[in-house]
């Protein structure tokens, strides 16, 4: 089985850089109250090789360092690292193999998003910010057991039906988000929890007024192609 020493200097340099990025982004999960204890994980895929960097399994966030991040191939086999990789590694690897434009994946158990997942409900698109970020509702995916690529397969199958959404709520489990890199996937995780909380609060007040899809499409196009710095 290949080790990191079998790869060239360009790959090893990117691994070092991505380890730092992924380690630092785990602290953002804590900052935005998206995880507790050792739950959740961030990964990023490399551009120079079919490898990814992911959190080690069961390690507390305050003990994470760039060197503790684990490097695997896109089948989930460890290439470098002294710790066992996340229990979600096979699912992250499956997503990368089947969604070639995705370079970042995040999983959390954030409270409100996971509450919607526990009830098997999509988060309805009742906010312009949801049109912006998700292009519609945040969809719920099927129930799948942890420890294999089954969750990743459920994520890919669900997002194929919602191609504008960077998030899926896996039933009875929690949100998975994707992005062009790990930072984009962390942003999507934070946004998912924000809209999950707001839509929950809205439902306590009354019926949610969902936005027409034609207007959602306009919102999403503006946000993705006009908003911000380019």
Under CATH, the topology is which?
A: L-fuculose-1-phosphate Aldolase
Query: H/E series, N to C?
Result: HEEEEHEHHEHEEHH
Give, in spatial order, the strands making up the sheet with the most strands. Answer: 4-3-2-1-5-8-7-6
Give me the count of strands: 8
Radius of gyration: 17 Å
CATH superfamily membership, which one?
Class II aldolase/adducin N-terminal domain
Strand-residue proportion:
5-15%
SS field, number of helical segments: 7
The stretches of 5 or more residues where confidence is low (pLDDT under 50) are none
- SS-based structural class? alpha+beta
Quaternary structure? single chain
Helicity range: 40-55%
CATH architecture: 3-Layer(aba) Sandwich
The end-to-end distance, rounded to whole angstroms, is 42 Å
Number of domains: 1
Mean pLDDT: 97
In the CATH hierarchy, what is the class? Alpha Beta
Overall form: globular
């Amino acid at each position: 089985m290949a080790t990191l020493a079998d790869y060239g200097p360009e790959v090893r340099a990117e691994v070092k850089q991505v380890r730092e990025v992924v380690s630092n982004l785990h602290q953002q999960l804590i900052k935005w109250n998206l995880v507790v204890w050792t739950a959740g994980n961030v990964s990023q895929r490399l551009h120079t090789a079919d490898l990814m960097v992911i959190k080690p399994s069961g390690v507390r966030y305050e003990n994470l360092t760039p060197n503790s991040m684990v490097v695997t191939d896109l089948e989930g086999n460890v290439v470098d690292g002294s710790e066992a990789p996340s229990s979600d590694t096979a699912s992250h690897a499956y997503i990368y193999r089947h969604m070639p434009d995705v370079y970042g994946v995040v999983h959390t158990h954030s409270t409100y998003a996971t509450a919607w997942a526990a009830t098997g409900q999509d988060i309805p698109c009742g906010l312009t910010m949801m049109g912006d970020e998700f292009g519609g509702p945040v969809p719920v995916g099927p129930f799948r057991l942890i420890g294999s690529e089954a969750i990743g397969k459920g994520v890919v199958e669900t997002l194929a039906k919602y191609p504008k959404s960077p998030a899926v709520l896996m039933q009875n489990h929690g949100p998975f988000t994707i992005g062009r890199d790990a930072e984009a996937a962390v942003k999507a995780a934070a946004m998912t929890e924000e809209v999950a909380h707001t839509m929950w609060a809205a439902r306590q007040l009354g019926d949610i007024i969902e936005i027409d899809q034609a207007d959602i499409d306009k919102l999403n196009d503006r946000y993705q192609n006009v908003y911000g710095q380019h």
